[in-house]
Amino acid sequence: MEVHGWGRYPVTSAEILAPTDAASLNKLLSAKQHNSAIPRGAGRSYGDSSLSSRLLSSRFFDNFSELNTESMTVRCGSGISLNDILKICIPQGLFLPVLPGTKFVSVGGAIAADVHGKNHHLDGSFCDHLESFRIMLASGELLHCSRSENQDLFHGTCGGMGLTGMVVDATLKLINIKSTSISQQSLVAKNLQESFELLNNSDASKYSVAWLDCLSSGDSLGRSIIYLGEHGKERGKEQEEKLERDQHEILKHRAGRSLSIPFSTPSLLLNKYTMKAFNNTYYTFKVKEKAELNVNYDRYFFPLDGVKNWNRLYGGKGFLQYQFVLPTESAQPGIEKVLEKITSAGKGSFLSVLKKFGEANSNLLSFPKEGFTLTLDFKREKSLFPLLDELDEIVCEHAGRLYLAKDARMSAETFKSGYSKWEEFVELKNKYDPKNVFSSLQSDRIGLTD
Ligand SMILES: Cc1cc2nc3c(=O)[nH]c(=O)nc-3n(C[C@H](O)[C@H](O)[C@H](O)COP(=O)(O)OP(=O)(O)OC[C@H]3O[C@@H](n4cnc5c(N)ncnc54)[C@H](O)[C@@H]3O)c2cc1C
């Protein structure tokens, strides 16, 4: 069967195996010990990290074992989506501490990429709130991992892109919320300098993210709209009623979610002129929007989830998302260079998002590190690849790295220059999976397997 990631590039042919429980996964692994495979969750990573000739789908690992409101934890199968967790937690006044830009990712995928949200500067990434998980190794052994049990495997699997084994289930910590609304404040930054200043001055805000007009130039280069957010503060009976109303709102919103892209848009429609027009219009429109709004969490965290199959907008050839992080000291000059390079190449991105990261954690391959991360989308075309190679050089020169969950083309050199613990990871892999049973197109390309 033909499969691809969210960017619809690359496309490969694969056998999809869907074990129904740990015992059937064990059977699959011992039957074909020498054939490589990679776990696959919801397929929301953009490139080739969940592609291989054999995919181990977590689709049937979709059970909830326990929602413990005392300890504020949830135990569930690795194939459960964050959306499903939110649906059972919200009525209890509980919420996930870290959310990526889509709720349609699986727990296994969120662990494997150690995903981050709009609050990394305060709360770290997904696995910083992970209590434990069970993983099945290539040998078929099922191990329990936490910060105190099989720690090396815990820190290698969190952010390890499915290369250490298949996560079967996990226990996640939750936070309390008093309302599902987010008080959103928007700020306008006239250029990149101001975008950095406003994000730096917003450290106390729970959530922050800047939407950047990546096609503005000259004095307006890097202008942006910054969205800050705090959880709503209702209490007592009022709170209960509000949660109920919000729940109703969510269901209504889901039912009414009819906007869908039914087929790939002709990619000719996406060129530097339409991109520029879009960026300009969005900026001008948003500048006029009310600066303070109460919005449902769905709209704040997952604005793109409302448009089904939006990845088809980029045409039949698909698109590439390019996300990198640069350390605080070099972030502004580095991002300035990247933006200038894109503008002079006449390329554009609909979506350009700037976020501030806090300290890195101790996982071997987790992406976030202290500094700033920029995300850009590009329609796939031949002339894009040399440009991305040039952007890689800027990222490496500025001591940055690219996000594995978005990548479809970086070289082994770029990967190794960004991820200083890659050799430790290979040692760990030799310990738990010496025959590289778990490998992906990506891991072969960047020199972690093969
Ligand atoms: C619209 C959109 C917005 C996004 N926003 C963000 C964001 O804000 N922050 C962020 O960090 N990411 C973001 N992402 C990326 C996404 O969160 C990650 O790629 C995530 O890993 C996808 O999870 P998945 O279940 O779809 O996994 P897949 O894409 O299926 O797989 C991703 C990786 O996880 C591994 N994996 C999956 N299941 C398991 C398992 N059970 N055991 C072991 N390994 C497993 C795979 O082998 C692969 O390496 C976004 C993606 C989209 C489409």
How is this structure best described in words?
- By secondary structure, this protein is of the alpha+beta class.
- The protein folds into two domains: 59-177, Uridine Diphospho-n-acetylenolpyruvylglucosamine Reductase, domain 3; 181-410, Alpha-Beta Plaits.
- 31% of the residues lie in helices and 23% in strands.
- The protein has 14 helices and 20 strands.
- It has helices at residues 22-31, 82-89, 107-112, 120-123, 151-157, 192-200, 236-255, 272-288, 297-301, 328-344, 384-397, 412-418, 422-432, 441-445, and strands at 2-4, 11-13, 15-17, 38-40, 54-57, 64-68, 73-77, 94-95, 130-136, 142-146, 166-173, 175-176, 181-189, 207-212, 224-231, 292-296, 319-327, 352-357, 371-379, 401-402.
- The strands form five sheets. Strands 16-13-15-14-18-19-17-20 form an eight-stranded antiparallel beta sheet. A five-stranded antiparallel beta sheet has the order 6-7-11-9-10. Strands 3-5-4 form a three-stranded parallel beta sheet, with no helix packed on it.
- Helix 10 runs antiparallel to helix 11 (384-397).
- The structure holds flavin-adenine dinucleotide.
- Flavin-adenine dinucleotide binds at residues 5-6, 38-45, 49-50, 58, 78, 100-102, 105-106, 108-110, 112-113, 115-117, 161-162, 166-167, 304, 405, 440.
